[in-house]
């Protein structure tokens, strides 16, 4: 009888333990939805015949493989993705920069890239010495272009710098090379990417600032702090074995990003 009771107890403990491991497995298998906004060459919603999906997307998929987490990039507009991730409706963002107000909403991974912001100059012209946005405030500086929807447009508004906003990076690039802009205030990566796809040559660029960016997981989703530990372990391994550089070189990004 005692042996029977002990056997039943052991069986119950084993079942409970297996149930716990099963729960972990289910958590690992659940897709962790990360909002991505279309931003070539970092995130490409509609890959071309070359199959390139974007440096950030490729990095995230490699992180998923190494961490054992099912990270699932899902494309949507930035504002929608940010709102849903903030509320915990989805699990996080493919990438975001650090801000104090975001720290209350998200866990930040170690850096997965670095973004550069600055001024592109029309081809064939000698770039003017521009060290800050204040240098664009001069009345004789010419037409300053920017892409609608980026926070860069708000920066020009706040600095009271007259500018012309266009609908996308491609239009901004075309207007610059056709000398309809005297300056283009932009992120470096997308304009360089477009330039290489076109004439194959980069256009003159003056960097004003650069900063790292991160994978961001919502603090409103249970377990994301523990998931971030695994993500950071994968990022560290990728930095050590050169995986990040290999991805970036495929897009002509290194050492830009």
Indicate the radius of gyration in whole angstroms. 23 Å
For the biggest sheet, the summary is: 8 strands, mixed
Strand percentage lies at: 15-25%
What is the general shape?
A: globular
Amount of helix: 40-55%
Are there runs of 5+ residues with pLDDT below 50, and where?
1-27
Instruction: Strand order, main sheet: write it out.
Output: 2-1-3-8-4-7-5-6
Which structural class should the secondary elements be placed in? alpha/beta
Q: What is the N-to-C succession of helices and strands?
A: HEHEHEHEEHEHEHEHH
The tally of strands reads 8
Mean pLDDT across residues: 86
Give an account of the 3D structure.
This protein has 257 residues and is of the alpha/beta class. Helices cover 42% and strands 22% of the residues. The chain has nine helices and eight strands. The chain has helices at residues 2-29, 55-67, 78-87, 100-103, 151-158, 169-177, 188-197, 224-241, 243-250; strands spanning 32-36, 71-75, 92-96, 106-120, 144-147, 164-166, 183-187, 205-218. The chain has an eight-stranded mixed β-sheet, with helices on both faces. Helix 5 links the parallel strand 5 (144-147) and strand 6 (164-166). Helix 2 (55-67) crosses helix 8 (224-241) and helix 6 (169-177) crosses helix 7 (188-197).
């Amino acid at each position: 009888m005692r042996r029977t009771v002990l056997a039943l107890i052991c069986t119950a403990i084993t079942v409970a333990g297996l149930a716990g491991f099963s729960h972990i497995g289910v958590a690992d298998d659940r897709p962790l939805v990360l909002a991505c906004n279309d931003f070539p060459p970092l995130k490409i919603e509609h890959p071309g015949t070359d199959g390139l999906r974007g440096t950030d997307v490729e990095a995230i998929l490699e992180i998923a493989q190494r961490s054992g987490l099912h990270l699932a990039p899902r494309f949507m507009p930035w504002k929608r993705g940010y709102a849903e991730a903030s509320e915990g409706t989805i699990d996080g963002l493919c990438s975001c920069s650090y801000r104090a107000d975001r720290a209350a909403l998200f866990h930040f991974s170690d850096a997965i890239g670095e973004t550069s912001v600055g001024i592109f100059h029309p081809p064939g012209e000698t770039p003017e010495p521009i060290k800050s946005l204040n240098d664009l405030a001069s009345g004789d500086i010419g037409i300053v272009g920017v892409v609608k929807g980026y926070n860069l447009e708000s920066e020009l508004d706040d600095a009271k710098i007259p500018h012309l906003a266009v609908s996308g990076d491609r239009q901004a690039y075309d207007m610059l090379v056709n000398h309809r802009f005297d300056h283009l205030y932009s992120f470096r990566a997308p304009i360089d990417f477009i330039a290489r796809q076109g004439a194959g040559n980069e256009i003159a660029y003056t960097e004003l600032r650069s900063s790292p960016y991160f994978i961001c997981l919502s603090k409103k989703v249970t377990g994301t702090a523990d998931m971030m530990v695994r993500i950071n372990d994968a990022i560290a391994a990728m930095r050590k074995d050169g995986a990040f550089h290999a991805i970036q070189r495929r897009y002509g990004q290194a050492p830009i990003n």
